[in-house]
Amino acid sequence: MKMKYILIALVFLAAILQACSEQGTAVVDNEAPPAAGGIPLPADVRTITVLNQNGGSHLAHTDAAIVERLLQGMKEAKPSYVSDPEQSGIRYKLILSGSEEKRTFSINDLRYTSADVSVKLYEEVSDGGPAKAWALTSAWGQLLTQLSVDDGPDMIVKSDEDNDSVTLIANRDIDQQSVRLRIESSLMVTSDEPDAAAEYTVSMVDARRVVIHFPNLAQKEVVQFNLKGAKTDDGQPFVTRYFDGSNIATIRQGVAWSGLRWLDTTGAVMREHGFDSALLIEPVRDEEGSEQELLIYNEDKSVYRFQPEQGEIEDITIREWPNDQVKYMSEYGVSTIYSYPDKHDRFFAAQGLQTVYIVDPRDGTKQSIYQSDRPIYGIAASPDGKHVAVLMDTEHIGPDADLVVIDAKGKVVSTFAKAAYINHSEGFHFIYPVRWTDNRTIEVPRVGADMETALYDYKKGFKSNGKSAPLPEDALKLLQSKLGEQDLFIVRALPKPNDEEGRHYAVNVAGAGSYLVDTVDQKVTLLGSGALIKWTSSGQLIVWHSTAGKSVVYIGVD
Known about the structure:
Layout: H1 2-21, E1 47-52, E2 57-61, H2 64-75, E3 78-79, E4 90-97, E5 102-109, E6 119-123, E7 133-136, H3 138-145, E8 154-160, E9 165-170, H4 176-186, E10 188-190, E11 201-206, E12 209-213, E13 222-225, E14 239-242, E15 249-252, E16 258-263, E17 269-274, E18 278-284, E19 293-298, E20 303-307, E21 312-315, E22 337-339, E23 347-351, E24 355-360, E25 365-371, E26 376-381, E27 387-393, E28 400-407, E29 412-422, E30 435-436, E31 441-447, E32 451-457, E33 461-467, H5 473-483, E34 490-495, E35 504-509, E36 513-518, E37 523-528, E38 532-535, E39 541-546, E40 553-554
Parallel strand pairs: 8-14, 18-40, 29-31
Antiparallel strand pairs: 1-2, 1-4, 3-7, 4-5, 5-6, 6-7, 8-9, 9-12, 10-13, 11-12, 13-15, 16-17, 16-39, 18-19, 19-20, 20-21, 22-23, 23-24, 24-25, 26-27, 27-28, 28-29, 30-31, 31-32, 32-33, 34-35, 35-36, 36-37, 38-39
């Protein structure tokens, strides 16, 4: 239960910080001189009351031992400064109630910012004189707000991409050397330049708070590192939690850009193509019968057919349908999905994720051939274009999907109940991958604890289960060591084609990005922030990358 309340508190705190961040990052300018003398405390303080920024009661400390510790921290507080404007943190009012008088102070909790002070306390000034401020520690702020429940060594990692910094906030004193070692051992940089390095500084603001700055990042450069393995000053490992819900600290520099990038096996960027509004990327067969093309679904409902080897792109969006009603909308914001047979003189589309059409792109003719009574999850045209496989919800918009095969006239040829499965909660409408391996065989996903697939002969039924080849043990250990995590969720792992040495493996890790593992040079290279797309015929890698933190979903069966 304690962990549950920690998470609730963090979510609440994140919302407050987001609101505060909209005011902009403060610049220390026109600073008032540090306050002279100690904090004026009333005599015989018995209660310390904390009010939130709206004046509502946050909590009241009446326990004598806690009151004494808070007062002692205030007696030891160092004079600070008042900036114009002040940095934005979480604001509180502090009321100290003594036997004969009360004193009110303002608190600016800056622990989750990159400020060089963890907590500021201001004396309330009523005569128009200069404001006075004092600096207090993270430990004092934790005791005052009681947002950190002492459940064992715990460290929160918060990235601030406005000023290229990462802040560590812990509930125990931090061993700074262990933090430095983790950064040095796990730091990865992706850049337009191969073998790029990133300068950084590590500032120990106080015993429980560290700020890491990257002052000279180049445009479009991205740095990542992992803090798992950081320790308390008495040698206990911290449980590390990332404020954004990921499992790695990431800082991106430069003008916001999102799209596909091509890299060689040294990590050098060979070329890029921007797709700032992309939501979903799906591999499709080209006219040679191999999955060499991509369908890119965008926020504005447009759909591109993209040939990554040649760099050619075509807008295939159908903007007018006989019935424009959109009955179903996927979680990605996509409501119409497309599929080509090998011969591209026509294609199939599931409009509104309900009605299947055959479309002739030459004259725009659209023929409705099938209407589903349930949400459609995915479609795939057979190579010869004579059939289309449709995955549709089994019940309750849940994880199971029935496989229905129809011919080009809309006649149902076969149905296989609960053929496909992707583990998720009911009520979420996801797009599922599905493909034909030949004119008889259909491959569908079976994704639970393992990433598996199932093969169906559309005439005879189930054939076999398949499973993606696991990442070799030596490559996995190298990746685990670099990312500092043993329990990595590997979304895709693609060995380099025709790699007789078994040297290069491209890997997409959930919540982290895509990496190239070189088992010969014992090296892990960060390729991009998002999905791993494919190896090209020339031995380059295509990955999704964003300097704006934007992600896309790749829905290939493999």
